[in-house]
Write a structure and sequence with these properties.
Length: about 375
């Protein structure tokens, strides 16, 4: 009888493990749109376009999709975007989602407003977060424009799984450590791995300041203004901006030379999809390990140039974001309304057209309306 009970318990445990770690291995096709990896997720209302976002701890859907599915609120709370802005949110339970070969039932998700630019301008219906990936090993991106999801590292085939970096979690989002240095000065820094960001390394303000104090961050530039980074709240941070270069950025055993840094005022630093220029990433969620598999041919140093005057959105208007060119600091200021890019009138432009990259100046200059109502035209050039 005791032996029978042991067998029953073993079978129950095996079923639990199998349910938690799917035995399937499949490739999920994606399209790359404006720096976002976009995948198809099946819902009860049909297939929908979702951004594949490891930096999102919880999956999100638009208000429009929530209405189509006839979902009622199951809870309320607050949530912040990556720059730290917080806003009230609603939770609902989605009865059915299918992403590739993975099926999810009765899943709690966040409903974000349709006014969020990610839905209104980019045409997405949702954000597939890391809560959908916790039972999988994820490899991305593949050369055939797919993302591989597997239940076990062995299913990836030919992959030597020694080393790597340990994963910690912020909610469900993977957090990894890198060692940064210049000469003899070294420190460790932690960051989310965020496929929802097309950037390289956005560093939390206090850690950025520590790198400056230790002499690690080189080619440091400072200014103030709108960051230009919009989260789902459609708001950008106004404050001190810092840019620089980290000479040695050691990630999962790989030394990435000349890593550009930009400051973020959010609660977490983040490493974005820009890291794919160096290699393919493997995230073992169940095993809590992260690998960067380097390309056979390594790229040259990343471009660290910046526009002398950047463009930002503020309240649906195009404004001067940051002024990096010191020769222009007494002519234009952050928040000044942009009237022309070259000779293109942008005084009443649709913000979505800007986000989609449809508005471009025909000359390397801009005309702005200053706080006193006067207008001035200034050159716009890249600065090394």
């Amino acid at each position: 009888m005791r032996r029978l009970l042991l067998v029953v318990c073993w079978l129950a445990a095996a079923q639990t493990v199998c349910a938690r770690k799917p035995a399937v291995r499949f490739d999920l096709p994606y399209t790359l749109e404006r720096g976002k990896y976009v995948v198809t997720v099946e819902t009860a209302a049909g297939p929908r376009r979702f951004a594949f976002d490891t930096g999102a701890s919880k999956t999100c859907i638009s208000e429009r999709l929530s209405r189509e599915l006839g979902l009622a609120a199951s809870g309320r709370g607050t949530s912040g975007d990556f720059e730290g802005h917080r806003h009230a949110i609603t939770y609902v339970r989605v009865p059915y989602l299918r992403m590739g070969e993975a099926t999810y039932s009765d899943r709690q998700v966040i409903v974000l407003p349709d006014s969020s630019y990610i839905f209104r301008c980019l045409g997405f219906d949702g954000i597939a977060g890391s809560d959908l990936l916790r039972g999988f090993v994820v490899r991305m991106p593949n050369a055939d424009s797919t993302i591989t999801l597997a239940g076990d590292l062995r299913q990836l085939g030919g992959f030597r799984c020694r080393g790597g970096a340990r994963i910690h979690f912020a909610g469900n989002a993977p957090v990894i450590a890198a060692r940064v240095g210049c000469g003899k000065s070294r420190m460790k820094t932690y960051m989310k791995f965020d496929t929802g960001s097309g950037a390289l390394f956005d560093c939390r303000y206090d850690e950025c300041r520590a790198m400056i104090e230790k002499g690690i961050l080189q080619e440091v530039r400072r200014t103030e203004g709108h960051s230009g980074n919009l989260g789902w709240t459609n708001r950008s941070v106004v404050g001190e901006a810092v840019r620089g270069v980290i000479p040695e950025f050691v990630l999962a055993g790989n030394t990435l030379a000349g890593m550009p840094l930009e400051v973020t005022h959010g609660g977490h630093s983040k490493l974005g999809c820009g890291v794919f220029r160096w290699g393919t990433v493997v995230i073992d969620y169940p095993g809590r390990r992260f690998w960067l598999l380097p390309h056979a041919e390594q790229p040259g140093p990343p471009d660290v140039s910046v526009s002398g005057v950047t463009v930002a959105l503020d309240g649906g208007r195009l404004v001067v974001g940051q002024v990096w060119d010191e020769t222009l600091a007494d002519r234009v200021a952050p928040g000044d309304r942009i009237v022309f890019l070259g000779t293109v009138d942008v005084s009443r432009v649709d913000p979505c057209a800007v986000i989609r990259g449809e508005i471009r100046g025909d000359k390397p200059q801009m005309t702005v309306e200053r706080k006193d109502g006067t207008r001035v035209t200034v050159p716009v050039k890249r600065m090394k």
